[in-house]
């Protein structure tokens, strides 16, 4: 079930004040995104990401996954489209002094040096590769965990279409999603989004934890959906793993801000008032509040490593 807990720009209905997108992007970067660090690190460790690795991050958002890869010595390129506030935060993290630049960070088409960082506001097919050189060793789709436009493996494979040709032959493409629902405590909390967005059907829908980047009710990926999506995209599955990614917050207020920074609750915010969403979300979090006031929800995420033939 991993939604793509990512940070989509909130809709106008959900964000009437122009500062709201900036505030939500900051909440994502400072509160929610760090919950996925164990997933990022497990993938990098398994693939031996380090000096000499050329890594492309799809839907890079505010860039924490890229930062971790760059700290290992990898040359990283991040691509995202339509998420200017998040990319601005990525520049602050990865390109000191570049935060005030325009939306596009031009990247020279040359072999990147170890630790080199390149950011692109655009589509995956626009990502630069050095002329006459191999493609990327590793392509990650950490932010593409939610349902695709048409849902299911077919939609996810379509979203990967532009990126797969950028991987070198034998290169790794990593997909990720929620683990079994019974091992994800956040599942019950995320159902609030479905219930408020569609009171008639919401009780039977389990949204994702990472913000879905597409319209429609978020839902968990089935056990075999990542493998099917990889095969539809012309990739060969080459192993998978599960990683514990508990969601921990200093207090209920931080938990509400973190979860609302994802895109999971945007439809609910568009059809009801924000206070109602916050009230029901707070109630759903109550069973996970510990004696010291902190919030703790154990979760398991799953990743698939696939190879380009």
Automatic annotation (TrEMBL):
GO terms for molecular function: methyltransferase activity. Residues 212-224 have a biased composition (Basic and acidic residues). Residues 1-22, 201-238 are annotated as: Disordered. InterPro entries: SAM-dependent_MTases_sf (IPR029063). Residues 7-22 have a biased composition (Low complexity). One of its GO terms (biological process) is methylation. SUPFAM superfamilies: S-adenosyl-L-methionine-dependent methyltransferases (SSF53335). Keywords: Methyltransferase, Transferase. This is SAM-dependent methyltransferase.
């Amino acid at each position: 079930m991993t939604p793509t807990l990512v940070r989509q720009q909130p809709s106008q209905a959900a964000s009437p004040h122009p500062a709201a997108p900036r505030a939500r992007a900051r909440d994502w970067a400072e509160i929610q995104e760090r919950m996925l660090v164990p997933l990022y690190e497990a993938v990098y460790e398994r693939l031996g990401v380090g000096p000499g690795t050329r890594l492309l991050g799809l839907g890079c958002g505010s860039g924490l996954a890229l930062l971790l890869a760059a700290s290992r010595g990898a040359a990283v390129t991040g691509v995202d489209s339509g998420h200017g506030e998040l990319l601005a935060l990525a520049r602050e993290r990865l390109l000191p002094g570049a935060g005030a630049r325009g939306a596009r960070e031009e990247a020279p088409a040359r072999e990147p040096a170890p630790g080199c960082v390149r950011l692109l506001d655009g589509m995956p097919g626009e990502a630069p590769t050095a002329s006459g050189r191999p493609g990327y060793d590793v392509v990650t789709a950490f932010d593409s965990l939610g349902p695709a436009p048409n849902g299911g493996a077919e939609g996810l494979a379509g979203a990967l279409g532009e990126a797969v040709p950028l991987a070198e032959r034998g290169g790794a493409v990593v997909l990720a999603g929620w683990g079994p629902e019974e091992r994800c405590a956040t599942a019950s909390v995320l159902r609030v989004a479905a219930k408020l967005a569609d009171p008639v059907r919401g009780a039977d829908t389990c949204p994702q934890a990472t913000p879905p980047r597409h319209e429609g009710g978020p839902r968990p990926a089935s056990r075999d959906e990542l493998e099917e999506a990889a095969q539809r995209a012309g990739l060969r599955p080459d192993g998978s793993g599960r990683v514990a990614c508990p969601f921990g917050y200093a207090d209920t207020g931080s938990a509400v801000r973190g979860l609302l920074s994802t895109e999971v609750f945007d439809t609910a915010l568009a059809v009801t008032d924000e206070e109602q969403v916050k009230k029901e979300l707070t109630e759903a979090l109550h069973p996970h509040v510990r004696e010291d006031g902190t919030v703790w929800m154990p979760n398991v995420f799953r990743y698939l490593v696939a190879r380009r033939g």
